[in-house]
Write the structure tokens for this entry.
Amino acid sequence: MINEEVANIFERVGRVLSYKGKDRFRALAYERAARSLRGLEGDLTTMAKAGTLCDIPGIGHDLSEMIDEYIDTHHIRRCEKELSTIPQSLIDLMDIPGLGPKTLLLLHKKFHIEDFEGFKRLLDSGSLLKLRGFGEKKIENLRRGIKLWLASKQRLPLGVALPIAERLLADVQKIKGVERADLAGSIRRRRETIGDLDMLVISNNSARVLREFTKLKPVDEVLSLGETRATVILEGGLQVDVRAVARQSYGAALQYFTGSKDHNVHLRTLAHAKGLKINEYGVFRGKKRLRGASESAFYRLVGVPLMPPELREDRGEIEAAIEGRLPTLIEVDHLRGDLHAHTLYSDGRSSLAEMVERAGTLGYEYIAITDHSPAARIAHGLDRRRLEDKVEEIERLRSRRGKRRPRIVHGAEVDILSDGRLDYPQDILSQLDIVVASVHSSFRQSPDRMTGRLLNAMANPFVHVLAHPTTRLIGSRAPIDFDFERVVEAAVKNRVALEINGQPYRLDLTDTLARAAKEAGALFAINSDAHSASQLQDIRYGVFQARRGWIESASVINAWTWAKLRRWLRKPMKR
DNA sequence: GCCGTTTTCGGCCCGACTGTTTTCAGTCG
């Protein structure tokens, strides 16, 4: 997919333009286009062929021509010309908090700063102090910016940030005088990674509440503290913004600070067309505030039904809401079981009995135990003999448990070998209740080979689920390269469900791929891929990702009753 | 550079906070 490549170019051009400061709206247009491409579900090359590039929000006449040019030549001459006017290492510095285009321009002109090393030397040299507008505090702030920047180069996965956020929220709710507190921002939208936390509180004494907040235990450093806003850094480096809001503005503020930015801009345009003005304080006609106490009232006034935060990315959800075709999203409670979990037999850290027991406390109707196949040597994949031992233990456990839930489903996570064959022979596969197939090696095959490999695997009649289809690891491993459309097509045809894996560093499929697969009619399995009993709960991150992919419970096979799932697992048409 | 049921031109969010000023500029969200 070239989406990311083009997005990167547009983002950099946007930064160069804002650095030059000539036309900030042109800069905004490039930045918005970059964000829009990153959130796109379809492939740019395909869209260009179909002539639908201009349907992408933020892409118009000029940018669509540039995308065409990139597809043809791998270059965009106008962008390259713009980029060549400024050293790229200088543009990278804009990521440093507190260092904006104006300051950067000044430092470049006065001190010929071109990269990070130069910037750091300048800070240490003390010559900045002589500059008008620069004092001790400002320089200290820039130093802190560097620290933050180095620490936050990787955003935190949702699965790491959300537990921190939930604990902090509970602490805030206990502060005296807090009437209500909520998470907002990207963590409320359940984005797969989180840059910082946004929180809102209602209180009749906000200054005191904010002061108390900055004294909470996990707070390491206070960056700013005012009457309505406080910004702190937690131990571990996560930044938190808390805003205190009046009760009558709470809905408007919650909407505003939940975003996304593009969703809000779109909403504001709609409001504007109706002669309304919206901001974090409410909906206004002229100077008169209409209402803003609840989020749903806020949306209603603008003429848009309320929608779940996970959808608010300006990816067509506003249009869908107006036309009454919002999806009814899957919820954690809809899941009746988990179809991907490991035990001590392979690389899990809990026993089979412990996993089953914990699955029971989660209210599951069924739990599939899917240890690795032999090719996964490091993970102690099971050969035929150890697989037989495991079957025996499952049988013993089944008879001991009688009719108690959950039902134990005997499965395996079977490696897809480099040519697309599976790592167990057909006679073993045929004995398993469920086969979860996945790639764990040879990640760098050509797109053609990789596509063929996956198609081969899915053509095997015993395969039920394609697990973590892209095999990416957030922050450490790129997704494998294959023709996603063809693979989805084969999944639909062969009745293979695509997994949405809930492990915090996987979240695979991604939101946009899941949505594309849904549009193509695919089925899904939302799984924990738990390697310990406590990790069974990570399945909720898979559900969040699925919700961001517009997925409804009807197309999630582990939201089905056991009776229905069992029929599907048998796949009579294939045998 | 995008966008359009007030517009094909003229908008495009603007309020809070900080720091260095003495009335404001820069940054952020």
Summary: The two ends of chain A are 36 Å apart (CA to CA). Chain A has a mean pLDDT of 91. The longest strand of chain A covers residues 407-415. Residues 3-20 of chain A form the longest helix (18 residues).
